[in-house]
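The protein record filed here:
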Amino acid sequence: MKALTLNLLGELEVIRDGQVLPLPPSKKTRALLAYLALQRRALSREHLCALLWELPDDPRGSLRWSLSKLRRLVDTPGRTRLKADRLGVELDTTAMEIDVVNLHALHARGLERVDSAELEAAAARYRGPFLEGLELDNFHDFHGWCLAEREAAMRAQAALLAALVERLSETPERALPQAHAWVRLAPFDEAARAHLVRLLLALHRPREAEQQLQLGMRLIREAGLPSSGELLRAWRAPRHAATPPAEASPHAPPEAASAPQGDTLEVLRWAALLAPDLDPATLGRVAGLETNRLGAALEVAEQRRWLTTTEEGLRFTRPELAEELYAAISPARRQAMHRRLAEWLAEAPLYDLDQATQLVHHAQASGDAELATRAMITAGRLCLRLFANQQAQHFAQRGLALAGEIAGTRGDCLALELHDILYCAAPLADWEARAGEVVALAERALEHGALAHARLGYQLASHIRWAHGQWSGAHQEALQAERVTRCADDREQVIAMAETARCLAMLERDLEQAAAMLAQARDLAARRHLHHPALPLAEGLLCLHADRFDAAEAHFNDARTLCKASGDRLGEFQAQESLLLIDLERDDHARARQRCGELCDLGERLRDGSEAPFAAAAEALCRYALEDDAGPFGVALVPLRHADARHRLAVLLLQAARLDLARGRLETAAARAAEALEHARVLERPTEQLLALSLLAEAAHRAGDREAGQRHAQAAEALIQGPVAGWARRRYRALRGAPAAEGEA
C-alpha cells in the first residue's frame, strides 16, 4: 500500500501510513477532494466554485477555506500534492492509491488475464457505492458527475464479481461470499441471484436457496422487470438431477390435480400478492371470505400441494407457482387487489419497517399516485419514530417525486407533509432554497383554503430559518402560521398559537404577545380536551424566561412525554435540552451529566444535525465541572462549531466561561465569553449577550483591566432593561455584586 490511500467506494476515507485520518466535517470539502482526485488535471477556480458553491456563499472564500483543510490531509513534509495558484487547482495523484482507479485499471487490463487472488483482493476493497452520502443533489453538475461515476463503479464491481463467481464455481464455498456480494450490489440482476441459488444448492443449503429464489422473484415482479426464467431454472435443475427418473418430485403437484378454481383460486391469487409471508387471517379479510369458506379453500390448496404449512407459517410449496398465479391476473384486477391491500394496511397503525415497506409496495403497485404518496408519508413518519432516519429520507424523496404528478392543492399539501419528514430526517443541504419552496407551497395551500397545511408550511419554514440563525425570517413565518389558522378548526388554532408562542419565546421577541397567545391556546385546548406537545414546550420556555424554574421543569417533563408518545423525536430532544439548561443553571452538574447520557443516546439516533455534537459537548462540560478536566470539552466543541449551531454553542460556551471564571482562568473565560457574544449578536439574542458581557466585564475587572471592564459593564447595563430572561438578569446582578432589582429573586 502506498503512503497515501484514498478510498472513494463507500464513505470517503483517507489513509496515511496505515492510519485513517479524520476528515473535514464539510461535505463540500470532502466532495472537492474526490473530484480533484479523479480529474487528474488542473481545474480553474471558477469551475470549482460553480460546481460546489453558490454566489451568496462567497464561493471563492469557501474554496480557499476548503483547500486549506485538504492540504492538511494530502500534503506531507517534503511533498506538496495539492497545487493551487491564482487561476487553478490540481491534485497530484501519482503517488496515491485510489480504490476506484484501481478497479477500472483491472478492467482495462482484462479481467480474464488477472489471477483470482488479485481479483478477490480488489473485490474486498469495495465498501459501498461511490462517495456514499456525498451526493449533494442541490448542486446539479456535481450531482450528475457523482451519479455517473457511481454507476460506472457499480458496473465495474458487478463485472468483477461475476467473473470471480464464474471462475470459482468449482469451489462453491469460496465463490459463495462473492455471489452474496454480487446480489447485494445488483439485487434485480436475475443472473446474479441464479448463481447464488446454484451455489447454495451445491452446498446443501436448500432452505436458503429457496429464500433467495422467493426474494429474487418478488423483487423482479415489484420492479416490473421481465423474467428470463434463469432463476427458476437454477432452482429446478439441481433438484431434477437429484431425483431418480422413476420418482416424482415431492414438491410437484400430482399429475391428476386440476387447476385451482372458485374460492381456492381466489385465495391463491391473494396469496400470490402477499407471498412469501402468508397469513390466513389477512387472506380471509382481503379475499372477502368468511371463516368456513376460507378454511375449505385452504384445505383444498394444501391437499393439492399448492400450499404447505412450515415452521415459518403458510407458504407456497413451489415458489414459481406464486409467480405464475400473479402473472395470470389481469393488470386492472391486479391494481385493484394491490389497492385493497394498501387500504387494509393503512387502516391499522404500523409498528415495524416490514409493514411500512409492504404498505408502500402495494400502494405503488395500485397505480394510484396519491395513495402511494400517502403511503410514503405514513412509512416516513414511522421511520422517524423508530430512528430509521435514512429510510425516512428515502421514503420522503420518493414521495416528493410522486407528489409532483398530483395536480392542484392535493399535491401541494402532500408535498408539505413530505418536506416536514425530510427536515426531521436530515439537515437540509440548501436550507434557504428549501425554506422558500416550503413557503411557496404554503402560499398555494392558503390560496385554496387548506389552512392546516398552510400552517404546517409556514411553521416548517420558521423552524428551518430558526435552526440556521435567520431569526427575523423565523419570526415572520411564525406569526404568519398563527394568522392563517384564525378561521381553521379548534385543533389547528391550538397548534398554531402554541407553536407561534413557542417560537416567539425561543426568539425572545414579542413575549407579551406570546403569553397572551399561549393563554388563549391553553383555554381553547382545555374546552376541547386537546393535547399537543407545543403547549407545554411553549409554557416551559416562557416560565424559564420568567425565572420560574420549578414550573418550567414540570412543563418540559410533560412535553418530553407527549413528544415521545407522538413520535416527535426532535421535540423530545429539545425538551430534554431545556431540562439540561435548568440543571446547569442550578449548578447541579451531577444531574446534568446523567441527563447528558440520555441526550447522547437520543442525539446519536437522530438525524445528522447538531443534536449529537451538542449532547457530546454538554457531557464534556459536565466532566469539566465535576473533575476539572477541560480538555475533552475543547475537543467536543469542534464538531459543534462545524454543525453551525450558534445558539447551542453560545449556551455551552457561557457555561464553560462561568466555570473558568470561578477557577481563576481569566483568559480562557474571556475568550469563551467573547466567542459566545459574537454568536449571540448574530442571532440577536439579548439574554446570551447580557451573560457574555457580564462575564467579560468580570474577567477584565479581575485581570485589572478597568477600561475593558467598564466598557463591557456599560454595554451590559444597556441590555438589562430589555427582553432578557429573568434568570440571566439575576445572574448578572450576582456576578456584578449589585443588589437585585425589585421583583427579582
Remarks:
- The mean pLDDT is 87.
- The longest helix spans residues 140-167.
- The radius of gyration is 31 Å.
- Residues 345-529 form a domain with the Serine Threonine Protein Phosphatase 5, Tetratricopeptide repeat fold (CATH 1.25.40.10).
